[in-house]
Design goal:
Helix content: 40-55%
CATH topology: Glutathione S-transferase Yfyf (Class Pi), Chain A, domain 2
Radius of gyration: 16 Å
CATH class: Mainly Alpha
Order of helices and strands: EHEHHHHHHH
Strand content: under 5%
Oligomer: single chain
Number of strands: 2
Largest sheet: 2 strands, parallel
Structural class: mainly alpha
Number of domains: 1
Length: 190
Amino acid sequence: MQAGKPVLYSFFRSSCSWRVRIALALKEIDYDTFPISLIKDGGQQLAIIEYLEETRPTPVRLLPQDPKKRASVRLISDLIASGIQPLQNLSVLKKVGQEAQLTWAQEVISSGFEALEHILQSTAGKYCVGNEISMADLCLVPQVANAQKFKVDLSPYPIINRINKTLLAMEAFQVSHPSRQPDTPPELRA
């Protein structure tokens, strides 16, 4: 670890860590990674993204200047990070029971994606909110990956699919991908 360089305590497969890695890549912030186990620890990291936005607003703004668009970004981000993702986390799935986990995850993700697709009908441009990348987009990609992991049928969500495909083509989303992290097991590496 280099002195003065930010350190991200990260788990390669964590949606929360992935969102922060995308923000760091978009903002061109060099950082060290300190791998942690989410079985022992974890937590939401949208506060980190907001901190990065407030302290380093360039080269990419993750919250629009326009208050209405900023509210839409926060609405979408909160829906994903607070309304969908926590319900399919390991701690919740353990309580649901092994035999019901897949069905539970598919139901909560599908329900959340129905609401999200409806919101995106009025907010989306090239990205979740208009034509500028935002914190909402950082939340979308990891959640779509979770949906794919749980074999959710994504065909009813054309806007989500289109935006996800556009974002995955960007370098920041590629370098932050779980398959490219220092703690990714060899069999899961890209």
